[in-house]
């Protein structure tokens, strides 16, 4: 036996229920790991079926097909002479468990069920699985050893964690390390959130800083069928140092990270920190003896990996890369031929457009780097078997259609801004006037009801003003889908287009959009991003992609342009309509979701953090105004376009932010508590006109 081990972990772009593709990617990763000299290969959580199967985990078919794939893996010559660690659901005594299955040379060594399930944020593992509650219990089924234990090879000892167990204050690696386990593995399905990557890295480093050891972290990558993007970052650490890392965002379906490490470095590290006489309260882990060695007696000249400095992406880079990779996966797996975006010339729709352009940059770079799968996918999308994308602008013209939907309330400035940006990114740009459709709809109403509504500036009521704005917004949605379905048909090309939305997280939080307007789309790449982050992102795109058209877009005040112009200029602005700034909304959104604040708790926090700019009376007014808007418009979240999850305070009603959508919008008791603190009277009367 030697002292050096070569280990492999990986990031796989698995797709829920795509058993053929998932098997192919698993085998590919094993082949690469073996080619790199690895004797142990770790894969992501539930990689055989895909993590995002959701209620399909209830189906017996899912379990059956997982075991069928496992059989293929066991019998494949590629899996010989390497310990393979794969993830799949397993049923035992009619109870479903989220498991790791470790096998070597056609023999299952261990089935390790997850003990600490993820049940926060977007995770709902308790809905489908039960936690294994007997960590020292030895069990045998399937005529093979199947138990919670650790592997003891000829030269070392290996113990498993699964995803959220690393985040838990009682992580298994602590007890395993004290019991002599030298290599820890973690198979994960950790999704992207802005500013989150350093949390993972710090946890992995901390796991081996305390008591030494080698830590392998594997993660899923890509869009496996829903709002989440799994962002890779597979890594290997030893004694608190990262020695090998995978990329966070890429179009590669398979990425394998390998490292060669010296087991004696672990033993020396522990010799100083973990003395033999340390009191160990727990019963020792059951060890499964494996007649196999990870090391080689001839490894003296084999170089080991040295610590590396992890360079994290800025939030602006994350917005540019994460949603772009998500869009690519969605597009190539949806069977459609491209995207259509209503481009208004404002910050939000311009951000969506820039993300599509970033996607095209990534595709061209991947093809240049020799990614055969990306080239195959792009050729299928453009229906040209000889096509090879080299210029992102040219590719953008093939995959991306933008349209400016003008009305009599649109300004020449926004029209020109949209046109200039479309020209710089290379999209196929259309100019559409919606006035004819709007007048036709209002004409129908006038014939039936005998009255014609007017804007407020023309003497109309608030209800009339709001209805007239909504008609324009909803007409844009109808036309967007019409052009998405028939645009390529009119050009003699096959396929249809996916409609992209462009409502940001703050507008969703307050309901500052029309239900079923052009924010109603197939998918929305920016629905989980705040307005403040989007502005910084566009500044990044201005510099990184040399998109100078964004300068005038950033300088213009955000506006819906749904009310009549004043002397040819925009008079309506978003922040005036909402009654608060986007910066204030970001703060309020974080307090509502992350800090779990109701109206009274939010008021109590903001009177301190906003004390330099607002009096308690002003804070009370802003808090009450927000909760009225939020509760009146919460029903919109039940139909909001599926959006890329990026922000920890997002209001997505699908599974991330579960709330009622019919509130008592007066909040009389809660607002009364605020009034007592500031010495006011009762809360203001409810305005029913806001509900649209």
TrEMBL record:
Catalyzed reaction equations: deamido-NAD(+) + L-glutamine + ATP + H2O = L-glutamate + AMP + diphosphate + NAD(+) + H(+)
PROSITE patterns reported in the protein's UniProt record: CN_HYDROLASE
Coiled-coil spans in chain: none
Pathway per the UniProt entry: Cofactor biosynthesis; NAD(+) biosynthesis; NAD(+) from deamido-NAD(+) (L-Gln route): step 1/1
GO CC terms of this entry: cytoplasm
Enzyme class: ligase
Molecular functions (GO terms): ATP binding; glutaminase activity; NAD+ synthase (glutamine-hydrolyzing) activity
GO terms classed as biological process: NAD+ biosynthetic process
EC number: 6.3.5.1
Record's keyword terms, sorted: ATP-binding, Ligase, NAD, Nucleotide-binding
Keyword flag Magnesium: no
Domain of life: Eukaryota
Domain CN hydrolase: 5-263
NCBIfam families: nadE (TIGR00552)
Subunit structure: Homohexamer.
Family: In the C-terminal section; belongs to the NAD synthetase family.
HAMAP family the record matches: NadE_glutamine_dep (MF_02090)
Protein name stated in the entry: Glutamine-dependent NAD(+) synthetase
Organism: Astyanax mexicanus
């Amino acid at each position: 036996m030697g002292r050096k081990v070569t280990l492999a972990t990986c990031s796989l772009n698995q797709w829920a229920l795509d058993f053929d593709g998932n098997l192919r990617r698993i085998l590919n990763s094993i082949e690469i790991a073996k080619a790199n000299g690895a004797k142990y290969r770790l894969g992501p959580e539930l990689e055989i079926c895909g993590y995002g199967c959701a209620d399909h985990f209830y189906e017996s078919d899912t379990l059956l097909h997982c075991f069928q794939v496992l059989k293929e893996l066991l019998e494949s010559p590629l899996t010989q002479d390497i310990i393979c660690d794969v993830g799949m659901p397993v049923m035992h005594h009619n109870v479903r468990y989220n498991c790791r299955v470790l096998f070597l040379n056609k023999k299952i060594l261990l089935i390790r069920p997850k003990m600490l399930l993820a049940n926060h944020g977007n995770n709902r593992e308790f809905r489908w699985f039960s936690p294994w509650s007997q960590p020292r219990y030895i069990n045998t089924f399937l005529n093979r050893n199947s138990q919670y234990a650790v592997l003891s090879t000829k030269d070392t000892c290996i113990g498993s964690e699964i995803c959220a167990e690393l985040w838990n204050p009682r992580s298994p690696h602590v007890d395993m390390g004290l019991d002599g386990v030298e290599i820890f593995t973690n198979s994960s399905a950790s999704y992207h959130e802005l500013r989150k990557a350093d949390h993972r890295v710090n946890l992995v480093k901390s796991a081996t800083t305390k008591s030494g050891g080698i830590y392998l972290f594997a993660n899923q990558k890509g869009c496996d069928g829903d709002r989440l993007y799994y962002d890779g970052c597979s890594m290997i650490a030893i004694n608190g140092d990262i020695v090998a890392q995978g990329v966070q965002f890429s179009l590669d379906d398979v990425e394998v990270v390998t490292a060669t490490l010296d087991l004696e470095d672990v033993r020396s590290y522990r010799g100083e920190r973990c003395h033999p006489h340390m009191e160990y309260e727990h019963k020792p882990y059951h060890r499964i003896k494996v007649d196999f060695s990870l090391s080689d007696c001839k490894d003296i000249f084999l170089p080991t990996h040295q610590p590396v400095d992890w360079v994290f992406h800025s939030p602006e880079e994350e917005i540019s890369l994460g949603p772009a990779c998500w869009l690519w996966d969605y597009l190539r797996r949806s069977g459609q031929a491209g995207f259509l975006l209503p481009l208004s010339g404002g910050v939000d729709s311009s951000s969506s457009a820039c993300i599509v352009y970033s996607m095209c940059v990534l595709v061209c770079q991947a093809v240049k780097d020799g990614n055969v799968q990306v080239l195959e996918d792009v050729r299928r999308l453009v229906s040209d078997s000889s096509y090879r994308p080299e210029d992102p602008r040219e590719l953008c013209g093939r995959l991306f259609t933008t349209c400016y939907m003008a009305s009599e309330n649109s300004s020449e400035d926004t029209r020109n801004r949209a046109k200039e940006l479309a020209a710089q990114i290379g999209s196929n740009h259309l100019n559409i006037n919606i006035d004819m459709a709007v007048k036709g709809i209002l004409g129908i109403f006038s014939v039936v009801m005998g009255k014609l509504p007017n804007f407020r500036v023309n003497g109309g009521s608030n209800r009339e003003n709001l209805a007239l704005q909504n008609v324009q917004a909803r007409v844009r949605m109808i036309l967007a889908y019409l052009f998405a379905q028939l645009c390529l048909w009119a050009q003699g090309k096959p396929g249809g287009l996916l409609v992209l939305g462009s409502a940001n997280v703050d507008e969703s939080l307050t309901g500052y959009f029309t239900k079923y307007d052009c924010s109603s789309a197939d998918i929305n790449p920016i629905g989980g991003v705040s307005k403040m982050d989007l502005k910084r992102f566009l500044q990044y795109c201005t510099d990184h992609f040399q998109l100078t058209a964004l300068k005038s877009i950033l300088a213009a005040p955000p506006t819906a342009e749904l009310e009549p112009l004043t002397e040819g200029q925009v008079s309506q602005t978003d922040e005036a309509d909402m009654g608060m700034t986007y910066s204030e909304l970001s703060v309020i959104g974080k307090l509502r979701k992350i800090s779990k604040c109701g109206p009274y708790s939010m008021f109590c926090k903001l009177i301190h953090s906003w004390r330099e700019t607002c009096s308690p009376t002003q804070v009370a007014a802003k808090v009450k105004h927000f909760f009225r808007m939020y509760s009146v418009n919460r029903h919109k979240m039940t139909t909001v376009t599926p959006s890329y999850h990026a922000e920890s305070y997002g209001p997505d009603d699908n599974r991330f932010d579960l709330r009622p959508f019919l509130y008592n919008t007066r909040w009389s008791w809660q607002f009364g508590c605020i009034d007592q603190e500031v010495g006011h009277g009762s809360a203001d009367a409810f305005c029913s006109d806001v509900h649209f």
